[in-house]
Amino acid sequence: MITEIIFAIGFIIFAPFIGALIGGIDRKVTARMQGRVGPPVLQPLYDVFKLFEKEKAVVRNEVNFYIFSYLIFVVFTGALFFSGSDILLVIFALTLAHVFLILGAYAAVSPYSHIGAERELLQLMAVEPMLILAATGFYMATGSFAVKDIALWPEPIFMTIPLIFVGIVYVLTIKLRKSPFDLATSHHAHQELVKGLTTEFAGPTLGMVEIAHLYETVFFLGIVWLFFASMPWVGLLVVIIVYFIEILVDNTTTRVRWQVMLRSAWLVALVAGAVNLGVLALM
Amino acid sequence: MSYITKSPWIIHYDGSSCNGCDIEVLACLTPLYDLERFGIVNTGNPKHADVFLITGGINEQSRAVVKNTYEQMPDPKVVVAIGICAATGGVFRECYNIMGGVDKVIPVDVYVPGCAARPESIIDGVVSALGILEEKRAKMAEKGGKKQ
Amino acid sequence: MELLVFLILFPALAALLFCILPNSRLRDTIVVVVSAIIIVATLYLFVVFAGAGTVYFDINSGMISQIMTGLEVIISAGLLYLAAKYRQYLIAGLVVVQLGVVLYAESLIHETAALNNLFIDPFSIIMAMIIGIIGSLICIYSVGYMRDYHAHHDDMPDKRRWFFALLFVFLAAMYGVVFSNNLFWLFFFWEVTTLCSFLLIGYSWDEQARKNAFWALLLNLTGGLGFAATFVWIGLTDPSGSLIMMDTLIAAGPAVAMIPAALIGFAGLTKAAQMPFSSWLVGAMVAPTPVSALLHSSTMVKAGVYVIVRFAPIYDASMVGYIISLVGGVTFLLASGIAISQSNAKKVLAYSTIANLGLVVACAGIGTYAAVWAAILLIIFHAVAKSLLFLSVGTVEHKIGSRDIEDMTGLVGRLPTLGLMMIIGIAGMFLAPFGMLISKWAALLAFIDAQYGFILILLLAFGSAVTVFFWTKWLGKLVAVAWKPEPMEVKISSHEYTALVPLTVLMVAVCIGFPLLSSELVVPYVFSIYGMAATLGQANTIIMVMMVFMVLVMPLSLFHFRKDRKILPHYVGGRPSTPDMHFKGSIGVQRPVALGNYYLADYFGEQRLSHIGNGLCIAFIALMLIMLLMGVII
Fold first, then answer.
1. What's the gap between Cα C225 and its chain centre?
2. Does residue B106 carry a pLDDT above 80?
3. Residue C365's domain spans which residues?
4. Which of B78, B96, B83 is nearest to B40 (CA)?
5. Which residues of A touch B2 (CB under 8 A)?
6. What is the pLDDT of residues A121-164, one digit of tens each?
7. pLDDT band (50, 70, 90) for residue B148
8. Quick one: average pLDDT of C61-67?
9. Bridge partner list, B51
10. Which of A28, A178, A243, C440 sits at 20 to 30 Å (Cα–Cα) from C622?
């Protein structure tokens, strides 16, 4: 119990810094891919600190409540995950968090954030099946939903559910808000519909969204790592490779329409789920 | 310590310029000049922006938009008028529809002359704007502290 | 035993009274009093029987069965008359065939062994509580609603006395369904619910209502035929009539009971509005809203899933059960999908009901202990949340004059109390840590361990993603308050509040108290049948309850965020905009901003998805019937 709490607190304290570091390296690598120097590695942290230096300006006071709830539940989701709780519960908490984000965008009542909210909903709908199927895959591989048991499983789970891993990497692009799936809102230099659902968030409100994004990055990379948990260093290597691929994809593709995103994400989930889980179930 | 100078996000608006200065502004973001080195990101949205770059003079149509965009930016914020048209109206000054420079509508902090303004001078202008931005931030923080 | 008989007879007798009473304050008061008595009696039932396990009551059936047969003949005659009058020959044919089959079956069976005609067990208690508490609250609500309804539709003949009579007959019949152990009795009450729903759907009796009412009748009679066929099978295999008792039949195990279980499952599918029979429940929304609430939450469709869940032990690990599960799973996915493309609030609710019942059916078809546990939890949460949603939509419709979700923009600003109630209801339908989600979770756990369960998991995974979409966009509409709206003149009748407030409280209470609900009622039932029971782990329960409290505490942050903020106008591409969402368009014209939701009709269109669903489910059901026939022949 104590270990779990330590892990949860560790996540809450260190995740934003790790997330910022990852984000900084991401921007650096992106810049190098484009033949630029790029910003300092700690740039994401500067951005967040700056946003909290800005004036507290809002469209409606209620928006802040939704965004704050989003942040809290993202942190909660990550803390649950890293303390080894039930992975389904983690997924549901994540959905709850995103519903709050979307409600914040709706509550801002602006054309841009409204479109962003609708698109974020589409993204949520595109990703959700893959996440649930991944949780099922973990269960079928290890016989437990608890992240703790999955992490302590002696063999690499990747070997049992390779297709599920591919599916997760695919939807990771959507969740990390990277091109070609950055429909709802995007990170650093990309712009879509004046940044979609964050359009009406200024200053500290946007800061909360950014912090939540840092937590989310760490959380999602944690899921990727979980496929190789029995070999922690290999897992870390895979996480690095996967993230590098995400950056590469981010820089070499253009944004697609939602139809393509929804269809392809569902198709990947369907094939990965049906084939991989089917084989596991029939074996 | 202040972070606003380390992460100034800009918004760029074309009042009624000939597009010469606009091209130069965007050139600043290219690999050659790479403004992102300084943490500068080009946002499309005044609510996310700290620095307002305007090119071209102000006409009747763009006046309301410039004013609205400026008002939507949360404090602290600075305005950089780029090119001679943004400063005074430039060659269009005498046109029936041109009101003059940007300072006819909103307060301008830095004027970057040129026709078109060169990327080096634009970067220089933005960097001097950051000093003003920092001053404004300090003033705002002081005011906020007093209130409490 | 007296209590059970009281619960069946009292609403029926009250209904007789309402046939006589004219529209008056007295009648309204009596409706409230009768409903209150039913609620109290149901609670008393809970207190008396909660820990008692399964109790059988020995009632001499001879006389009562004859009365029931007599009533069935009368009802059939009435239906025949209506069918002939409106030239619904198919229905007339079905009525005649059904009556013939039932009378033939009765002649085969000498009910010598029929003794324990009534019974009660924890599952019956749960159903009785749903019927008694939620059903009665809906009755109270209808007092205020129907007054408004007739004020809005003054061209319509005021048949309110029949309306209230029918509501209470409905409740009586539902009690009968859940307390009957004798399948003949169950079937009688079953047909009474069909009749009541037919008359209530057709309440306004205009062309549309009549058409939908007859359609509902047709589909439910088809299901009833399946039920009636069961009796013939029982009569032919066991003339002594011992199998006519549900407990004996279920205890006889799959070897004996598979055919009746499949036939009754078929009847359940029609009543629970599963594809391809779902269209009757969608059509039923022409009825006044309390009727929809009643049909969707506490009666009618719940009778359908009730019998399927009852027979779940027979389905366990059988092909028939798996096919029923597939029908439920496909219905869950596709009905949820159709809900995306609908903007009519009642239609969204209707499709979400069909979808959730699909999930219950899918669980029951799997038939393992974990699945049955999940199914019962789903029934409970769905009943509470759906009744709350229907009633709040009904009231909102009367206040804003529309049931379109697009017209509910910013409802929390205009009608704060109702808006909040609606939000609680919607959150209860799909969000962690609230009710339905717990059940979906339980369903997932149940599917994983079932054979070929991965197909159901695929259906569930995609279905729940779709569910998130349509509920969240509805929520989004409710919270999109453009500017400090002037609160509408809120004059909601006290009757409507009397129902809405307890339902909201109940919703929150079942969310917080679900561990208790599970351990006190659901687990004992599942345990009594399977000898083991599923639960959520203690740690998970604690986390869930923690989340509930977080969600409840979070709004307090508003006090902080209300302080000292600069309000900026909306960003409309730099054009000057006003707080009430107008912007200065070209040549200086003020234009309003209108925001609409995505409905994705090309992907989730009603036509398209219901064709697919109906086709698939007809194929599944045909497969099941062919298998049965082959089983009979071989």
1. 22
2. yes
3. 2-555+615-633
4. B78
5. 53
6. 999 999 999 999 999 999 988 988 889 899 998 988 888 899 99
7. very low
8. 79
9. B10, B78
10. C440
Q: How many domains does chain A have?
A: 1
| B68 to C566: CB separation less than 8 angstroms, yes or no | no
| Domain B9-147 is found in CATH 3.40.50.12280 | yes
Establish if C454 touches chain A: CB-CB under 8 angstroms. yes
Given a cut of 90, whether residue A220 has pLDDT beyond it is yes
Interface of C with B (CB under 8 A): 566, 568-569, 571, 574-577, 584
In A104-143, the residues whose Cβ lies within 8 Å of chain C are 105-112, 114, 117-118, 121-122, 124-129, 132-133, 136, 139-140
The answer to the question of residue C606 being in a domain is: no
Interface contacts A/B by beta carbons within 8 Å? 84
User: C576 lies in a domain?
Assistant: no
Instruction: Tokens for C63, please give them.
Output: 């006389």
Chain A residues in contact with C568 by the CB 8 A cut-off are: 57-59, 202
C391 inside domain: yes
CA-wise closest residue to B13 among B29, B28, B26, B4: B26
**Do the Cβ atoms of C453 and C366 come closer than 8 Å?**
yes
Interface predicted TM-score (ipTM) of this complex, two decimals: 0.93
Between CA C510 and CA C528 the distance in angstroms is 23
Q: Is B131 touching A (CB cutoff 8 A)?
A: no
Which residues of C are less than 8 Å from B60 in CB distance? Answer: none
Subunit contact A38:B37, Cβ cutoff 8 A: yes
Is C586 inside a domain boundary? no
For chain B, the average pLDDT equals 86
**Span C1-18, mean pLDDT?**
88
Chain A: closest CA distance from residue B31 (Å): 5
Q: Does B43 touch chain C (CB under 8 A)?
A: no
- Distance between CA A172 and CA A150 in Å, rounded? 20
How many domains does chain C divide into? 1
Read off the pLDDT band of A224 (50, 70, 90). very high
Contact A140 C432 (CB under 8 A): no
Estimate to the nearest angstrom the gap between the alpha carbon of C62 and the chain centroid: 33
pLDDT in tens, B67-85: 889 988 888 899 999 999 8
Q: Which residues of C549-579 are buried (b: 16+ CB within 10 A; e: fewer)?
A: ebbeebeeeeeebeeebeebbbbbebebbbe
Lowest pLDDT segment from B43-47, B78-82, C617-621 = B43-47
Dist CA C41 CA C62 (whole Å)? 27
Whether C574 sits inside 8 A of B47 (CB atoms) is: no
